[in-house]
Amino acid sequence: MAVETYELDEVQEETVEECAEARALIDELGLDGQKPKTGADSKKQRLPYRLMTPEERAVFKTLCPAEARLADYDAGPIPLRVLQIAAHAKPLFDELYVWHPVGHDKDPVLVGCNGPSYCNDRFILARWGGELDEWPALLKRAARLHTEFWWAVTVRLIATIGSFWPGGEGSLTNGRRC
User: Fold this and answer.
1) pTM for the full predicted model
2) Element (H, E) at 62
3) Which candidate in 99, 112, 129, 160 could, as Cys together with 64 as Cys, close a disulfide (CB 3.0–4.6 Å)?
């Protein structure tokens, strides 16, 4: 099984002293954007995982619309490396989630979240599957799914509106069926 992890090496390898020095310098320089993004004051460790970009979030939510708390995930086995990442990340986050496709375990994504469940700060921790596609293939697949979804919505909407239009269903398309 292929596993891809998203640790930030420069933070992952910090010793306790380096982490303390980094926090002191961040405070001294007033770098609010570099302060640890955590939900509780007791979690003052810098996070060794990165925030998802808006593009990644949109792609992964399109490909993996189902979401389960890690503790409740039962769509398939979790590889050992992902379990190790989860064990390391658990004290750093308020909650860990697995995003996965509906009905099966193909290429799930492990996500960390701090704050309320509706927050936008989602950290990508790992993903796994039989064969992991590269980003361009993921982007293309998500775009295709998104296009198919909105095309189906548009066709249903045209049919619904057409049924209320004088002349009955399909008159909006000048006799052509969508």
Assistant:
1) 0.69
2) helix 54-63
3) 99
